[in-house]
Amino acid sequence: MSETVIQQVEAALEAWAEGLHSIAPHAGSAWERLVGEVLEPRAGRRTERQECPSPLRDPVETRNAHADELADAAESWGRSGKRAGLLKTLAEWWLETFGEQDAAIPRDVRPEAVERLEGMRGLSPELAARIQLRALEMAVWPVTRAAQRICFRHGWLDPSADYDEWQSYFIRGSSGDADRLRALFDALQRIGQKFCGARPRCEDCPLQPLLRNGQPLDLNAE
After folding, report:
1. How would you class 118 by CB atoms within 10 Å of its CB: exposed for 0-12, middle for 13-18, buried for 19 or more?
2. Is the N or the C terminus of the chain less surrounded, counting Cβ atoms within 10 Å?
3. Alpha carbon distances (Å) from 222 to 158, 215, 217, 218
4. What pLDDT score was predicted for residue 44?
């Protein structure tokens, strides 16, 4: 079932002007992508074309820097420095897991390393999953509010679905292809931001043809 739905979603997103074909390839090193996930962009600031500044661009520099120095670097990059302290913890995890090398990060990260990442204090399950998907190129699906609204309104997943059910649905539906998952995730995040907020704008959404009976399911229904 999920394979068919994912194929239909991908077909609809391919035809959308801001869909799958417009998703940019990975940019920067794996560590820089991790930093970009942790440090949220500040409103009104574009950061895509700016180089990650020192001491954020290297895990050794990040581990050795003071949290205030990291926060200042984040602000200069147009991002919030609120999670600068968390970056130091992540740098320790990174160096314990991968050492100082940053090329050819293995997609099959050791289970114990993933367990330490997912259990890290201050790291939400969603952010841990985004790090795995976008930075480490692992086949993991981040369960975001946008994805929940889209899936529940289309009836693809039940609101009672647990984390493992979300992983099974999207990973099986995309054949476990991490690049395919990332493109789909990024496109659905755009859909959520533009069309599927607290009040859906289904008439303009490229996924509208996939709604049951042409109407979204009520998120507040019993």
Report:
1. middle
2. C
3. 12, 17, 11, 9
4. 45
